[in-house]
Write a structure and sequence with these properties.
By secondary structure, the protein is α+β, with helices and mostly antiparallel strands. Helix content is 45%, strand content 19%.
C-alpha cells in the first residue's frame, strides 16, 4: 500500500512524502524473487554454508517451530519429530 502525506502551514503546501507499506512476507518474497540464487541468499542470511540444503531445512524448521504460538498444532504428529530432529 502506498500513501501520500502532505504538509503545509496556513494552507501553503510545504511538501509531501510517499510512504510504501509492505508486509514482511511481501518484502521477503521480493528479496527472494530479485535474488540470482534464492537458496544461497537464504543460506547467507542464516549463516549457513552455501547450498547445505539439510542445514537450511533444519534451521527453517526450528525457526518455524519456535515461532508457532502455543497450542497452534498445524504440524500435528510431525511437530515432535521436527523438535527432536528425527524427521526423515
Amino acid at each position: 500500500m502506498v500513501t501520500n502525506v502532505y504538509y503545509g502551514v496556513q494552507r501553503k503546501s510545504l511538501g509531501s512524502w510517499n510512504f510504501k507499506f509492505e508486509s514482511r512476507a511481501e518484502i521477503l518474497a521480493n528479496l527472494l524473487f530479485d535474488s540470482t540464487d534464492p537458496v544461497t541468499f537464504m543460506c547467507e542470511a542464516l549463516n549457513i554454508s552455501s547450498h547445505d540444503l539439510q542445514s537450511l531445512d533444519e534451521t527453517l524448521s526450528a525457526i518455524f517451530v519456535n515461532n508457532v504460538p502455543h497450542g497452534f498444532d498445524i504440524l500435528g504428529s510431525y511437530r515432535g519429530k521436527i523438535e527432536t530432529g528425527t524427521m526423515q
